Amino acid sequence: MSRIGKLPVNLPQGVSVTLGADNVVAVKGPLGELKQKVDIDIQVLVEDGTVKFTRPTDQPRHRSMHGLYRALIANMVHGVSVGYTIKQELVGVGYKVEAKGQVLEFSLGYSHDIHFELPKEVKATAVVEKKGANPVITLTSIDKQLIGQVAAKIRSLRKPEPYKGKGIRFVGEVVRRKAGKSANAK
Predict the structure, then answer these.
(1) pTM
(2) What is the rounded distance in angstroms from the CA atom of residue 161 to the CA atom of residue 35?
(3) How many domains are there within the chain?
(4) Rounded distance, CA 109 to CA 118, Å?
(5) DSSP class of residue 64?
(6) How many CB atoms lie within 10 A of CB 101?
(7) Model confidence pLDDT, tens digit, residues 102-148
(8) Which of 36, 107, 171, 172 has the fewest CB atoms within 10 Å, i.e. the most exposed one?
(9) Which of 65, 81, 97 is the endpoint of a domain?
(10) What is the distance between the alpha carbons of residues 139 and 117, in angstroms, rounded to a whole number?
(11) Residue 57, domain extent
(12) In what order do the strands lie in the sheet with 103-107?
């Protein structure tokens, strides 16, 4: 058995899971609703405040899908009950970000500003805590896959470089630094 797949998903208070046609699992909670189509071979059983997953055989395909769909549904349950938050900071002189509704306006040292449109499921706030501190972007969403993809796309606008450490990084991320050229090298 899959170690992940055999674990039941516990449903917190206020979260409901329904199994629809074509094996579509709908998870509804206080923050919203998410849907995921589950492969027809994986059986989903909702009972007594838990969701359980079973597979028909031990084929590699079934084993991999068993843990996958359990993890996806568990992420959906966490998302509609608590939500997900990702924080990113802009490190660099003159790097700025401004949130205007669903559009983030970046100034990242290029010759032009970058306008980044967010999906409607993701909310963003841009804050500078104190004067001289790095701007911090806070992304919130109920969809773990989507918020991770958006955060990766934002980071790709100006990846942290190893010599000065400038760029967009996740809060708490450690950037490995390289030594620059030595002036007295002989």
Answers:
(1) 0.88
(2) 38
(3) 2
(4) 21
(5) H
(6) 9
(7) 999 999 989 999 999 999 999 999 887 777 788 999 999 999 999 99
(8) 172
(9) 81
(10) 13
(11) 9-81
(12) 96-100, 103-107, 114-117
